[in-house]
Amino acid sequence: xxxxxxxxxxxxxxxxxxxxxxxxxxxxxxxxxxxxxxxxxxxxxxxxxxxxxxxxxxxxxxxxxxxxxxxxxxxxxxxxxxxxxxxxxxxxxxxxxxxxxxxxxxxxxxxxxxxxxxxxxxxxxxxxxxxxxxxxxxxxxxxxxxxxxxxxxxxxxxxxxxxxxxxxxxxxxxxxxxxxxxxxxxxxxxxxxxxxxxxxxxxxxxxxxxxxxxxxxxxxxxxxxxxx
Length: 228
Fold this sequence. Notes:
- The structure is a single chain.
- The relative contact order is 0.19.
- The strands form 2 sheets. This protein has a 4-stranded mixed β-sheet, with helices on one face. A 3-stranded antiparallel β-sheet has the order 2-3-4, with no helix packed on it.
- The chain is an alpha/beta fold.
- Helices cover 37% and strands 13% of the residues.
């Protein structure tokens, strides 16, 4: 008998919010709506991995479903891109002001599972007119320089861990955005800055009751998912 229990490690794509393209939340929302994550987990992980709705594990006391959910919806993704001014061309790639909608996706080279996921994502995003360029690097370069110093142009895919009961201040608070000033020590690689979330992440450490901490973390996760 084999007993399987979902763990706390999750694979995700960090979006570099310094990018002019990804500063538009409509593009970020379109990216999520365009991924059939159920199909992805069934095809590559035997359906054992539940598609994540945010960065907190279902085994964590802070887990909540009271967040912004992005179901697989090709039409919604296309509508968001249209609204953002990116129109589908004859070559089935979206363009705006003469510029094609091209995003670079990076991960660790020679990791077969991640490379399969990349191809899956590339095809999913191609279906809504987003051109994806894959550029992978050896793990020591990818983690030592590219992710740590946020040198990826648009998207970086890698694993992270959700420590049960531990608020993710190190990866979500704006003071932890890596920069020369802090010696690139911050883990908020994507550069997410949200004043409401910052305040809540500061307050959660001063809250003595579990229920009080859960309420604050639920609000953090709402902001996190709303901003994508």
